[in-house]
Amino acid sequence: MNTSKTDSYQLSTSSSKNSVTPNRYKPAYLRRRLKMLCSSPFILSEGLGKRVAIHCWHNLQDEEAVLLLVSLLVGWSVPQLLLLRKEDIQRDKNYYYLRSSWKFNDLKLPQLWKSFHIKSSEYGVIPLPSVLARRLIEVIISPSTNDNRKTLVETYLGNKFDVLTRRPTLTGIRRNIECWAKAVGLSRAELDFISGIDQHNSMQSFYVCFNQADMHMKLIKYQSQLLDADPKVLEVKPFEEYFGSKRALTSAGVKAVFASHKQCLRDHSQLTHQEFHNRYTSYLLELFHLVTLMRPVSKDVVKRNSFANDFSSVVIVDKGESSLRRIPVPFTVRKIFHDYIGYLMVLDKRQRFVYPVVANEINRMVDGDAPFFQYWDLHNDKMVKADRAAINSSLIDQYPLHRNWHRHTIATHLVMRGQCRDSLKAFMGHNPPLDHTFSGLSSLSYGVLRGVSENIELLLKYWNIPLLSSLSKMVEGPNV
Fold it and tell me: Which fold has domain 251-476?
């Protein structure tokens, strides 16, 4: 709304004399207050949100009302909706779903190992009221006579509501679902999926395979409350399939991995020291990555001094400074790493005169001057750090899994059991660079991380993971 200088002066003189705003600023100040453009990011009140929703619901003959209502119900922006194609609206009997833009690559594995992964549907979907979905299809396929349909929607929104009230904006319409999220129980990660946030801007979305039905129940509750209608009347129904990461193993898959390690170590008396050490190192690395969710990177390695003296925790930096965190180690696993020190010391004594180079490196491993986990190079008789390439070459014959299977599997199973996604994000090192100690869910807040670690320990017990400790005694077994 444009105002002349005279009008501005009248507005300023009619305001209270007790105002602290200087008189010379009042004309411009009042103009800014009156000029509420549709691009302003004002959050809708509960009453205004319902008013917009019900108005659009009863005026679905208007294309602009259709786009506004879909944006209000699922949190997609109008430009996103204008890019939809007919096939992006999926039908299942009498129910309609908006297809998510998130994608996950298919696994290229033997059929046996594919069966050990949690089955994820090809597409993620978001429920829509059937009447609204059918109208949205008509809007999508209808030829537009105006290229700037977003402007038409903004104009429609501004014309349908009183000038003197707080005008709803497209940003406010899109973000209305965020204001209701806590009331209906939607997490930040679920909001990212529903609202069509770019998948690369929600890194943790790559790690979890989740039950869509649980999320849909919360979304349907929001939609029915906003439209003041029963879900049966709206014809909305949860979609009963999992969607997300295709690298997460089932419980049977995790058991198969560690059964393979146990089988390799069972006949240790038939192995050379070198072969036994490499197989046991592979077992330790899988267990370590499973309980800490550390990324299997090449340049950042764990040393003895990365652990606390009693192995109760470990400091991890696996993706730049922002990934720095101290991770608790489950109580039942600490003894495994403690016994690993004893194993290394016995191995050092036995190999000092035969392989002095290897023995010196073992000493450095125990002292914290070299990576804590290293493979024995069978060709050159020296120790090499356990980076991604070394792990892959060691395990390729046992099982051809992606090296990040630990993070995908633990994250998925914890979320299935109700784990807080924000605390899991801190545990996995997904916090932003400006992480700080006064945040309750900071990666530096040890109590939150301890809770995640305790839940991981419960998973280990549920899966009956073999904990092969007291391995210093096994050094006598392998043949030279």
Answer: hpI Integrase; Chain A (1.10.443)
